[in-house]
Design brief:
Pfam families: Zn_ribbon_9. It comes from Corynebacterium vitaeruminis DSM 20294. Keywords: Coiled coil. This is C4-type zinc ribbon domain-containing protein. InterPro entries: Zf-RING_7. By secondary structure, this protein is mainly alpha-helical. It folds into two domains: 97 residues, Helix Hairpins (Orthogonal Bundle); 123 residues, Helix Hairpins (Orthogonal Bundle). It has six helices and two strands; from the N terminus they run H-H-H-H-H-E-H-E. A two-stranded parallel ribbon has the order 1-2. The protein is rod-shaped, with a radius of gyration of 42 Å. 15% of the residues are buried. Bound molecules: zinc ion. Zinc ion (ZN) binds next to loops.
């Protein structure tokens, strides 16, 4: 293949740019969308988790209130009993007995309220734990997506690369591009630099006879690597 030295360099850059691009994956905006959705979901989960914890706190306060009421009522019942032991007046005894009965019945009510509150707080705590767990899992999801996005930061450079490939192709004659594309399809390289000893496509160090043939070829001639068929650019 014959090509001016400048064009050889252009062709080499094209081949190198194409090879560099093959490893990089595309898809930046999709990951960004997923991340935005995950962050929205995260805000919702954090709020739900906060409400669940608030419900637990409220119920704990309610339990403390019931327990405090119960303590007061038991003190009152104990007082009533002491006074009953000393009182002889019928009217006074009737009042004390009535008060003792009222206190005992209120204590019984409180005990069932307390039982209910304990059942309820158990469920509320489970719910709060579950919410906190979801927040944690969502946080992990966000971190994974952010890592993925950082990787895909090369998406912008991928677009730049596409543009550069277009520019380079514009600078080269069509028949050269056809030959290059064909050779590239065959061996995955097409064109590579020759460093004086080995081929930049297959990296095989060539025997002296091949080396001297390559060195002696006319400057605008692009010799082929006898091993892989890649067109070689000298003095690249
Ligand atoms: Zn080769």
């Amino acid at each position: 293949m014959k090509l001016s030295i400048d064009e050889q360099k252009t062709l080499l850059e094209l081949a190198t740019t194409l090879r560099n691009g093959e490893a990089a994956p595309a898809a930046g905006s999709k990951a960004q969308q997923e991340l935005d959705a995950a962050k929205k979901e995260h805000a919702r989960l954090v709020e739900a988790s906060g409400s669940a914890q608030l419900a637990v706190d409220d119920m704990e306060l309610e339990i403390l209130r019931i327990q405090e009421d119960e303590r007061k009522l038991r003190r009152r019942a104990a007082d009533d009993k002491v006074q009953l032991g000393a009182a002889s007046d019928i009217e006074q005894r009737r009042d004390l007995e009535h008060d003792l009965y009222a206190a005992k019945s209120r204590i019984a009510d409180l005990m069932s309220e307390l039982q209910e509150a304990h059942n309820e707080i158990h469920a509320l705590r489970n719910n709060a734990d579950l919410c906190a767990q979801r927040v944690k899992e969502d946080q992990k999801k966000i971190e994974a997506l952010e890592a993925k996005l950082a990787e895909n930061d090369s998406a912008a450079t991928a677009a730049d690369r596409e543009e550069r490939i277009g520019e380079l192709r514009e600078e080269l004659p069509d028949e050269i591009l056809v030959t290059f594309d064909e050779r590239r399809l065959e061996n995955g390289v097409g064109v590579a630099a020759f460093n004086g000893r080995s081929c930049g496509g297959c990296f095989i160090v060539l025997p002296p006879a091949d080396l001297s043939a390559i060195r002696q070829a006319a400057p605008e001639e692009m010799p082929e690597c006898p091993e892989c068929g890649t067109f070689l650019v000298r003095n690249a």
